[in-house]
Amino acid sequence: MTGTEAARVRGLVKAFGQRRVLDGLDLTVRRGEFTALLGRSGSGKSTLLRVLAGTDRDIEGESVVGGRVSMAFQQPRLLPWRRVWRNISLGLDVDDPRGVAARALAEVRLEERADAWPGTLSGGEAQRVSLARALVREPDLLLLDEPFGALDALTRLAMHGLVTQLWQRHRPAVLLVTHDVDEALALADRVLVLADGRIAAEHPVPAARPRSVTQQAALRTRVLSDLGVSDHEAA
Amino acid sequence: MARWVSPLVLLVVWQVVSGAGWVPARKLPPLTTVWRAAVEVSLNGQLGDGLAVSMRRMLVGFVIGAAVGASLGVFAGLWKWGDASVDPVMQMVRNVPLFGLIPLLILWFGIGELPKLVLIALAAGLPIYVNVHSGIRNADPQLVEATSVLGYSRWQRLWHVVVPGAASYTLVGVRLGVASSWLALVVAETIATDSGIGFMINNARDFLRTDIVIVGLLVYALVGLLMDTAARLIERWVLRWRVS
Predict the structure, then answer these.
(1) In CATH, what number is assigned to the domain containing residue A47?
(2) Which residues pair with A71 in a beta bridge?
(3) What value does the mean pLDDT of chain A take?
(4) Domain that holds residue B190
(5) What CATH number is given to the structural domain containing B141?
(6) Does a structural domain hold residue B22?
């Protein structure tokens, strides 16, 4: 693995019984690069993230991550019995956990909710805490497993802006799993399509940020067709 | 307010039927007599001494039972081989009717304090074991996964994820344990005893003092209620993160 790579996967096979969900997958994620991973339900997107996160080690092939990994999930997965600020700082080895948590919360504009119980947060707020918790670990590779999937459309748009901002400030390599093509095109430098257990297609997204959807209509059509959705179905 | 009406009516009926002599005072003395008996046993020290002995029994038995039950529950909940070795035995013991053990406990431990404490400890320990065990077993796998990706140590995962997750189960076990060990105390004290509230009641029965028997029962009920309330308050504090 070279110094410019944040993660490198070669010949990855992951089988559940007879079913090979990932079947000889190759993937390289460069440092600081924002990659979106698209795929239909059951295509193995989340499985791949779990392998990269190191929670699934029962695999064949090679999967190496250079540096710290951190992750945010579709459900925020906050500890309901710990206050917001402790959710952020727990598991960190720092001198001033309260201060570190406060700064991380300020970045997602939630500093006034530091002492709240997670159960009192709205869905969007909880997801912002989850993001802050992932980023405060200063990851070299940030895994995002459909973190906006459960949010309403408006909150989702606000989160897109926030994630772009945080990524530009901290510059981790990001691997975002989503099944929303527009989300992938709005956020990523590069869009990958996962099908039949491998990366079936790869598209760079050259547009400058901030982006508009209409600007990328042609690319959107191509990605959708990679996913097996024809233009008139998606219209 | 409406919930207070029927108990009050019942008390009035009690006072009227026994005060008017329709029911012999030997069977059911009027409330006023029960009250006088309560004052009597309070002043001559019977009640205070008996209560102190009973509470100490309850406390010692409960603490031992809870400690053993909780430790075994943690042991069987966290480790597969702990589960394999401890759980089958506990399930067997759990299925023996508790009070059916009394003859055996008397044969083993005689009729002193020990069999009483063992009975109370068993009554407290079994529900606590069962609930701690399943609380740990049911730790949210999503939280366990998330915190391991986020770099929690094993110890931090145990302390911040597994233990608090098992807290609501554990508290259910504690409340069941309190209720059932209080019941065990009452039963143990009616068997063979020379001290405690149970002794006061048995003694009163021998002298046909129905009024003192009723006072003893009321004390049992009141203390049981107080302990349940205390358990509820603790529960509310521990689970204060729950959104109502």
Answers:
(1) 3.40.50.300
(2) A143
(3) 90
(4) 52-238
(5) 1.10.3720.10
(6) no
The dihedrals phi and psi of A51, each to the nearest 5 degrees, come to -65, -45
Residue in B143, B151, B152 closest to A77 by CB = B143
Cα–Cα distance for residue pair B7/B33, rounded to 1 Å: 19
In-domain check, residue B91 = yes
Q: How many CB pairs under 8 A join A and B?
A: 57
CA B201, CA B212: separation in Å to the nearest integer? Answer: 7
B170 contacts B130 by C-beta, under 8 angstroms: no
Q: Would B6 be classed as within a structural domain?
A: no
Q: What single letter denotes the amino acid at residue A106?
A: A
Residue position matching structure tokens 């005060």 = B19
Q: Which residues pair with A69 in a beta bridge?
A: A141
Say how many domains are in chain A: 1
Structural tokens at position A169: 């400030």
CA atoms of B198 and B186, how far apart (whole Å): 7
In which residue are the tokens 């925020």 written?
A76
Domain span at residue A31?
Answer: 5-234
Whether residue B98 is contained in a domain is answered as: yes
Whether residues A90 and B242 touch (CB distance < 8 A) is answered with no
Q: What is the pLDDT of residue A152?
A: 87
- Whether A53 has its CB under 8 Å from any CB of chain B: the answer is yes
Look at residue A32 and tell me whether its pLDDT is greater than 60. Answer: yes
Give residues with Cβ within 8 angstroms of B242, minimum separation 6: A80, A119
Q: Are B212 and B44 in contact (CB under 8 A)?
A: no
- For chain B, report the end-to-end CA distance as a whole number of angstroms: 24
pLDDT digits (tens, 9 = 90+) for A7-27: 999 999 999 988 999 999 999
Chain A contact set for B153 (CB, 8 A): 91
pLDDT category at B243 given cuts 50, 70, 90 is confident
H or E stretch at B220:
helix B210-238
| Tokens describing residue A61 | 């092939």
Q: What would the mean pLDDT of B34-49 be, rounded to a whole number? A: 93
Q: What is the DSSP letter of A75?
A: S
Q: Take residue A183 and report the two structure tokens written for it.
A: 């989300």
Tokens of A59: 């695999």
Q: What residues of chain A lie within 8 A of the CB of B150, using their CB?
A: 70-71, 91, 133-134, 137
The residues, ordered by sequence, that sit 6+ positions from B73 with a Cβ below 8 Å of its Cβ are B128, B129, B130, B131, B132, B133, B135, B136, B173
Domain count, chain B: 1
Do the beta carbons of residue A130 and residue A113 sit within 8 Å?
Answer: no
Nearest to A123 by CA among A156, A97, A95: A156
Q: Which residues of B205-230 are buried (b: 16+ CB within 10 A; e: fewer)?
A: eeeebbbbbbbbeebbeebbeebeee
Q: Hey, are the CB atoms on A71 and B146 less than 8 Å from each other? A: yes
Residue type, B27: K
